[in-house]
Amino acid sequence: MARHIRWTSLGVLALILTGLMLTACGAASTPTTAPPPAATGAATGAATRAATTAVSGGAATTTAPRATTAAVGSAVAGGPTKDVKVGVVLSLTGDSQIYGSPQRQAVQLAVDEINAAGAIPGIKLVPAFEDDAGTKDRGITAFEKLIKTDNVTAIIGPTLSNTAVAAFPVAQQAGVPSLGVSTTANGIVEIGDYIFRDSLAEAQVIPTTIKTAKEKLGLKKVAIIYGIDNAFTKAGYDVFKKACDDNGIQIASTQTYTATDTDYSAQLTAIKGTNPDAIIVSALAEGANIAKQARELGIDAKVTIIGGNGLNSPAYIRNSGPAGEGTIVGAAWNSTNDNAANQKFIAAYKAKYNADPDQFAAQAYTGVYILAEAMKNAGPNVDRKTLRDALAGIKGLATPLGTFSFQADRNADHPPVVQVVKGGKFEVLK
Amino acid sequence: MPDINWSQQLLNGLFAGSAYALFAVGYTLIFGVLDILNLAHQAIYMLGAFCALVLVTGNVAGLGPLPGGMQLPFWLATLLAMLVAGLLGILLDRLAFAPLRKRPDTHFSGMISSIAVALIFEALATWLFLPQRSQFPAGTIRPGAVTLGQGALSYSRVLVIVAALVLVVLLTVLLRFTKLGKAIRAVAENPKAARLLGINVEAIYSFSFFLSSALGGAAGIFYGLAVSRLDPTMGRSVELKGLAVIILGGMGSVPGAVLGGYLLGLTEVLSVALTNTSNYRDAIAFVLLFLILVLRPSGLLGARRVREA
């Protein structure tokens, strides 16, 4: 009987197994290899998979001259209406679901509005939703499925920058125009000329946040805490650090955590010891827990919490409660912006979902309208290539985010806004 | 170099250690008795926490309010949730382990089937409680904190420390000084001999799972309350640390799991305090784990096993 001597080796094996399990859980669905429907023309399944660099545009759309769809497209009365599939990859489960859920609702709202109004002559938008669970591998799987099996013309999403850095190269290689609607880290549009985003980069928002916070609060010394194993929170830290250096603000303590952490008290205790004027939190959903635990440790409410886009969600206010009051967050959108497109969006969203939209919803909604505008400009025979070119030409479009243009580098161009949490709501910091 | 707030960091370490210990004692108990790793322990931990949440709020996020809209005080909800967690543990044993017990080499097959049950439990929780973060409502327990020297600890964190102490002492008393405990130890030593002596071995297995899972559920409840975070995958982050703790303490040793828990918690916190950065925390903690295992392969309090035959 040798069962006892196996104890230690068994334990080590289990340790490895557990690790494997954690990774495997993220990739529950395997990449599908089924060929695309026969109706998609020239590209067969094998050809699509082989032609990784340039997929012929004609294969990208599905012709569906059905009477029902033609009736919807009122703009071309009597003419055939073509279904154009748009992939939508969002974090619908997992921690980042707090961002992905409003995004999904906003996309559906925009698609319904556009199709009902026949806003794109001869085209009916058909969204194909995929869940990336906030992970890289699920994001890649979703992109591959949408591009190779569903033959989408464009993709909206993914929700997280961390997923985007892994999934966008797939779209770039296949030549599928992809529009990030909440990816704010550095190095996203740099992936290639098919990658766009309508979300202001952290690098565009954070310097304004820090400059404004310094003016209003007289910041001299801050502490920073950020997630070290996530592309978004790490990139946010880099931009915050540079903004502090540029504004002559001393960084007294820099602390990190990992995605699986739930207790931040050791780091926050170290931060408390340096007596900072503010704590910069470059975090995702865990930002609310960090704020809460900071106050529990007795860090005074006068020590302002300053956050990036990850804290820019009603869920942050809801989860942090009184601890989150006074938090300063830079943003691309605020509900009090009174331009007509914004007010129309807010009213429509409230009417449909009986909830207030957040920035993630506003940007996702805007993303669909940007795609629609580009498709209109590209004409009814739009394909992946012509859509890309039309996207690059978007200028001065009236959206809920304000007057929207793409910069030459395919980043968004519109003015940012600095907000403060007051009475459980985001207000513009004045 | 700012001053280190030692009393606060020690309290932080004590809290983290208590949380690890509470999770690990139940984990190691099953290993001690059955010689198998129960990788669904983390799922029980999660379900226990959610069960208490449901009883406190009277609401299931994915389904709606409970009939009658009853809302229980926290302590009663905790006791009931521990009971439910314990019963889930028995169910887990019946589902994942009992059918395999008669086969040769149940180590690996049992481990795999417990992973399956963990995934089923997680899927169930995602359906019932939605794939989102939940938290106990404000005022579940008294807000505020106790201060000790330069340190402060919220009541919810004090509760984790006290619960760990009380439950571990109760478990030790049960194992050492009761007839039931003696039976559990006998089965752990040698199930065949125990059966010959008239001990109902299957009943002891069931009871061990009940005990282990009730403790795991309690760990989930108290920790979830203290860090204000419950979600269907909350067990995964503690699972790996818990495994490290029981290997460190000596597989199957309850005092070892407690010692290992506090050692890991304190090491993590002190590495942050001393380096004034958290970049090296896990590296330092796991290098220490590695060194201890090199020096003592059977863990700190693990009995040195002799090769039998």
UniProtKB/TrEMBL annotation, chain A:
<feature type="signal peptide">
    <location>
        <begin position="1"/>
        <end position="27"/>
    </location>
</feature>
<dbReference type="InterPro" id="IPR028082">
    <property type="entry name" value="Peripla_BP_I"/>
</dbReference>
<dbReference type="InterPro" id="IPR051010">
    <property type="entry name" value="BCAA_transport"/>
</dbReference>
<dbReference type="InterPro" id="IPR028081">
    <property type="entry name" value="Leu-bd"/>
</dbReference>
<dbReference type="InterPro" id="IPR000709">
    <property type="entry name" value="Leu_Ile_Val-bd"/>
</dbReference>
<dbReference type="GO" id="GO:0006865">
    <property type="term" value="P:amino acid transport"/>
</dbReference>
<dbReference type="Pfam" id="PF13458">
    <property type="entry name" value="Peripla_BP_6"/>
</dbReference>
<keyword id="KW-0813">Transport</keyword>
<feature type="domain" description="Leucine-binding protein">
    <location>
        <begin position="84"/>
        <end position="424"/>
    </location>
</feature>
<protein>
    <recommendedName>
        <fullName>Leucine-binding protein domain-containing protein</fullName>
    </recommendedName>
</protein>
<keyword id="KW-0029">Amino-acid transport</keyword>
<comment type="similarity">
    <text>Belongs to the leucine-binding protein family.</text>
</comment>
<keyword id="KW-0732">Signal</keyword>
From TrEMBL, chain B:
<comment type="similarity">
    <text>Belongs to the binding-protein-dependent transport system permease family. LivHM subfamily.</text>
</comment>
<feature type="transmembrane region" description="Helical">
    <location>
        <begin position="243"/>
        <end position="263"/>
    </location>
</feature>
<dbReference type="InterPro" id="IPR001851">
    <property type="entry name" value="ABC_transp_permease"/>
</dbReference>
<feature type="transmembrane region" description="Helical">
    <location>
        <begin position="155"/>
        <end position="175"/>
    </location>
</feature>
<dbReference type="GO" id="GO:0015808">
    <property type="term" value="P:L-alanine transport"/>
</dbReference>
<keyword id="KW-0997">Cell inner membrane</keyword>
<dbReference type="GO" id="GO:0005304">
    <property type="term" value="F:L-valine transmembrane transporter activity"/>
</dbReference>
<keyword id="KW-0813">Transport</keyword>
<dbReference type="GO" id="GO:1903806">
    <property type="term" value="P:L-isoleucine import across plasma membrane"/>
</dbReference>
<dbReference type="GO" id="GO:0005886">
    <property type="term" value="C:plasma membrane"/>
</dbReference>
<feature type="transmembrane region" description="Helical">
    <location>
        <begin position="108"/>
        <end position="130"/>
    </location>
</feature>
<dbReference type="GO" id="GO:0015192">
    <property type="term" value="F:L-phenylalanine transmembrane transporter activity"/>
</dbReference>
<protein>
    <submittedName>
        <fullName>High-affinity branched-chain amino acid transport system permease protein LivH</fullName>
    </submittedName>
</protein>
<dbReference type="GO" id="GO:0042941">
    <property type="term" value="P:D-alanine transmembrane transport"/>
</dbReference>
<dbReference type="GO" id="GO:0015190">
    <property type="term" value="F:L-leucine transmembrane transporter activity"/>
</dbReference>
<feature type="transmembrane region" description="Helical">
    <location>
        <begin position="20"/>
        <end position="37"/>
    </location>
</feature>
<dbReference type="Pfam" id="PF02653">
    <property type="entry name" value="BPD_transp_2"/>
</dbReference>
<feature type="transmembrane region" description="Helical">
    <location>
        <begin position="72"/>
        <end position="96"/>
    </location>
</feature>
<feature type="transmembrane region" description="Helical">
    <location>
        <begin position="44"/>
        <end position="66"/>
    </location>
</feature>
<feature type="transmembrane region" description="Helical">
    <location>
        <begin position="283"/>
        <end position="303"/>
    </location>
</feature>
<keyword id="KW-0029">Amino-acid transport</keyword>
<keyword id="KW-0472">Membrane</keyword>
